[in-house]
Amino acid sequence: MNFLINYIVLAEIFVIAGMSTNILVGIVGIFTVSQAAIFGVGAYTVGGLTVAGTMGFIPALAVGAAICIILNVVVTLPALRVSGDYFVVTSFGIQLFASAVFINWTDVTGGAIGLFGIPSPEAFGLAVDTPSGMMILTTLAMAIAILCFWLVMRSPYGKLLKALREDELAVASAGKSVLIAKVSAAGLAGAFAGVAGGFYAAFISFIDPSSFELEVSVLLLTMVVVGGARTLAGSIIGPFLLLSIPQVLSLVDIPSSLAAPLRGLLYGALLIAFMLLRPQGIAGQRI
Amino acid sequence: MHRFRTYALSAVLATALAAPAMAADKIEIGAILSLTGVAAAVGNQQRHGIELAVEGINASGGIEGQQVEVIFEDHQAKADQAVLGFNRLMELHDIPAMISGFSGPTLAIAPLATRRKTLVLNPSAQADQLAKASPYLVNTIPTVSDETSVLARYVYQTLGKKTASILYENSAPGISGRDDFRAAFEKEGGKIIDEEPIQFGETNFRAALLKIAAGNPDALFGQITQGTPQLAEQSKQLQTKFTIVGTTNFIEPALRGNQAANGWVHTQLLNSVPDGIEAKFKEKFGEDMNFHAKQCFNAMEILATSMRKVVKDGGKLDGETVKAALFEIGSFGDQKMPITFKSNTAQMGIGINEFKDGNTVQIENMSSAN
Amino acid sequence: MLALQLLINGILTGSGVGLVAVSFGMIYSCTRVFHVAHAGTYTISAYFVWSLLLLGLPDVVAIVAGILLCGAFGIFIQVALYEPLAKRNASQLVVLIASLGLLAVIQNLIAMIFTPNILRMPSTMLGGVLNAGSIAVTTPQLLLFILAVLTVAALIFVSRNTVFGKRIRAVSNNPGLGVITMLRPRLVYIYVMGIASAVVGITGIFNGYDLGLQPYNGTLILLTATVATIAGGIGSIAGGFLVAVGLSVLQNLSLLVIDGRWSVAITFVLFIVFMLFRPQGLMRAR
Hints:
Chain A is an all-alpha fold. In chain A, 75% of the residues lie in helices and 3% in strands. Chain A has helices at residues 2-28, 35-51, 57-76, 78-81, 84-104, 106-109, 131-154, 156-166, 168-173, 178-204, 214-227, 232-251, 259-277, and strands spanning 115-116, 122-123, 126-127, 206-207. Chain A has a two-stranded antiparallel ribbon with strand order 1-4. The radius of gyration of chain A is 19 Å and the shape is globular. Chain C is mainly α. Chain C has a single domain, classed as ABC transporter involved in vitamin B12 uptake, BtuC, CATH 1.10.3470. Chain C has a two-stranded antiparallel sheet. The mean pLDDT of chain C is 88. The chains are: A mainly alpha, B alpha/beta, C mainly alpha. The interface between A and B is large, with 41 and 47 residues.
């Protein structure tokens, strides 16, 4: 049972993280591959603060979220100056720079050795150190995140964001500030990624730079696309489905020395099949 | 597509529920290694070492009649994948013990091993933090600090090299090694001129070598786990003047026959496998048995010996009992090259080797520092 | 002295990265596909040659055959994957993800067939080293540099001065119009993928001789190359090449002043800053 619970916890964490990518890429249309970096900042902040005993989990989460909001705004600002195609690579650069900081700023992040012994979260005085307890906490967090996402998308603000993707010029000429809209979307996305990162650190109890590399940003992107960009259902389905694939594949008994790369190959093949057969994702509208 | 998802989840559920019933009369051991990704070469050697050992164990009657089966998980040298793999192993199988590879991932699962009271054997990773990471983590290999203190003393006193620079992999064992060698060498009275990092998996050392050469050290301590043949060739091409020294990382079949490595000096943890095993390995897998494969072979043997004792004494196989048996037995391997456990970390003999004519040859024999 | 050595090392390595950048840029500016699986072509090129050498072919033949095989491989990808996606009106993001899936397939397939061990080319033909004072250049490095410069020059020439080149540029600018005016964009895409894949094979093969072959190492060089393509100005061959060389030189020379751990990071920071001041890239497309 724990195996299933662990899978659910991880999937829920990625649902929250994936929402950050969904907001920027799916809804606003800013193609970013640096969300894993923000996720990492959230993880290191919460990890660092709770390991040292400086703060409890919830306060650390708040600090992490605040830092990530600011950071994501700063990191998305270049998108205002640099157009779509070019911003992708700027975003690459930001992610790579962040990875380099994670691995080299040893005093803060522990460098390549990582941070270990991150304590389980305690919420309202109770320690949460069983997998099922963790699952309750993450489900709660995910529910709150879903609610936020849903409310935002339904609000006039959400409609404004959607309009940005369609026609920026129209939005501007309607008197709305494009800058404020984009910046606030970036901030919101930052909050989601940072909170997800904090939960991740508490769940895995050991983090190192390898968990926050470009690959993970790409995984988030993939989850969004496969799940269905721009929709709430897509944000939920994507992570659950994509995280289940390696788990299912590892259950399939491939009794040969080629098992590991074969699974990698099957994962890749599945992605291709998905894009050919259902590019709008499971729950998505055409993007 | 919804159907796919339902099938996937039902498959997971079904197998999760069915699995415990299947583990009836065989013993399942776990192994979490880096089987894909940049470190796959090492992981696969480790896997082969374990497979060969299990074959032998099962052929000679298993553990008091019970066959052994190893369940492999791939952590891709990543901490979170190691945690997931550990959880999968523990949930879907009845596992008293497992073998793990690489420092980062092993450090990641150490607290989980403590919580679950599962025995984890680490035969290959040497980061210093591993010594105290968990009471249930037993390192069948000394940490890197043992080797570096022996090496530093030899380099300074016997070879007479007074200055050295360090080339290290930017990873847990690389940084451990760098810090330990620096401390040991400076303690001897030597001076460290320069330290250059190399990204994990990189095989182009030229820029780092050029910078190191400019500082003109007498020796270069190379703490890298991959790319040693490339390091040898590139330093040859750049006609570097320093002597390259290192630890057991330099025992690499890829370096065998490579004339570019002549003159390299390194420490060698003295491990051995029974006669004929290396030939069997070559025959079965088509490649030479490297240090890590031997370590994993021996680790599996250590596990088997400990488990036999538990079963003979009528106990139930779990992390606690196997661990207790291991420490009771205390010493494994043969008389010439024993592996002894006075703490969670093994003590092994350490030799000094030098590369001559494309082959590494032992020139001295020291013993482990503690 | 060290500075000079690092400079030369940077130029040599950079020329190889430049070919990857130029070829990636060709594909992107013409077909608008973010072909990440290009890293797979880079990796597989060395394995093609390795296999051919093992079959007994002489080096020169194996290398030429390897390059041609890469071209064919690229065409195969275009026809088997990107065309069907285009027919379904897939968005750029969807194509990117498909390309990622393809890269995973290629890398793991190589690992399954050739094992993940680092292999060496079974040939000593390119084992020479030239030493001039304290500068050392290996034969593969030198050959790669020469071929890179020649290839880039040839590509620029073809692009500007031949009908074929003009046709490619026309289709890049306006595929719709290209269809109407019978330029047959589909065929142009095939040509471009073929040529670009062959070009990236050059770097892959010679790096294979110089540094060894491994299945999972194509991604890092592709990353630097994509950065160079964009910073150089999409559509500009010379721009992409120059920025690639520049980045490589910068990474090498930065060792003089900062700790090696930060050299990759600093280059990307400078890139980001550069993009803020010159968002259209170094050179405009021609």
